[in-house]
Amino acid sequence: MIGRILGFYFARRFASAVVLIFLSCVTLIVLVDFLEMARRTADREQVTVGLLALVTLYRAPSFTEQLMPFAVLFGAISTFVLLSRRLELVVARAVGLSVWQFITPPVLVAFLIGVFSTTVFNPVSADFKERANQIEGEIFGSSSSGLLPQGKKEFWVRQQSVDGQSIIQAQATRQGGRALSGVVVFEFDKADRLVERVEARSATLGDGAWILTDARVLVPGLDHQHYDTYLIATNLDPKQIQESLIAPETVSFWQLPAAIRSAEQSGFGAERYRLQLQSLLARPFLLVAMVLIAAVVGLRVFRFGGVGQTILGGVLAGFLLYVGTKLAEDLGDAGFVHPVAAAWFPAVAGILLGVLILLHREDG
């Protein structure tokens, strides 16, 4: 009974610390992002404060989703350090609890946070990210210069039509990939020779063709020509376009398996979606690894002192684990590492390392 009461107490303290840190970071990120968006749209009269606030709100979940591991890490460190300094862990040991018993509640809470983040928060984040992309495309894709937000990723798609092969580059997508902004099309004939290059402000997928607006056509050896509307044949349907152009971050966790199957059936690469799916599945275990790293730091403070140095060491270890996770994901995205290994190795390695250190310290 005493162990159960202490377990609920430790779990509540840990959950409160994580929520407090997470909300503080969210507030700071939303404020900074709002100011940055206001700076980039200062010369656009059609952008109102309400529209900026809406875009910031839609962008916030995708940013804060990346903060979850750090919120869990800092929340766990603060919880264990505070329990140590108040000698509450001494009481826990005095009633016969081992280190595994009083870190189990935070571990379970972290795992549940990870499950919630994957199954609930991620779908909301993906939906909001898609809406933000749509509004940003309307804002930044409305000028002839095609100016887009800094750091915006480009999207590429290859298609085969009756005229030959085409490669389409788009700066932004809207309407599930059926509307593009900042479009450049490279058209090749059936002998794979470049026929023309088309630059357009926007493109919309019609019945068997892309409808380009405000297009400039450049043919080798000839002067460029301007067209208000220009058609490029395509054999792609909206579903294929969506799977080839939409970023994995804008696809919900529950929709990723269908996106993978559709991408494979249509001949497009599905590695990005596989990596995103595996990363979301591994997220609860990554948060558990963060708690174990924090436990190593908290126990060291309790037994040996040196609060500042050990906290710094724990933060550095958590940061290195997070960087390793991102590095593995980049390698997986580039095709150098299998998506399963890229997504799961950092989390599993962090858990094993934390358990090994705790076993060495507590059980010799």
From TrEMBL:
Where in or outside the cell it occurs: the entry states: Cell membrane
A Gene Ontology biological process noted in the UniProt record is: transmembrane transport
Entry membrane topology = Multi-pass membrane protein
Pfam families per the UniProt record, alphabetical? LptF_LptG
- In the UniProt record, does the keyword Translocase occur? no
Keywords (alphabetical) are:
Cell membrane, Membrane, Transmembrane, Transmembrane helix
- Spell out where the chain crosses the membrane: 14-35, 67-87, 99-121, 280-301, 307-324, 336-359
Q: Does the keyword Cell membrane apply?
A: yes
Domain of life of the organism encoding this protein: Bacteria
Kindly list the GO CC terms recorded for this protein.
Answer: ATP-binding cassette (ABC) transporter complex
| UniProt cross-references to PANTHER family, sorted A to Z | LIPOPOLYSACCHARIDE EXPORT SYSTEM PERMEASE PROTEIN LPTG (PTHR33529:SF2), SLR0882 PROTEIN-RELATED (PTHR33529)
What NCBIfam families would the database entry show? LptG_lptG
Question: Under what name is this protein listed?
Answer: Permease YjgP/YjgQ family protein
Q: What is the species of this protein?
A: Xanthobacter autotrophicus (strain ATCC BAA-1158 / Py2)
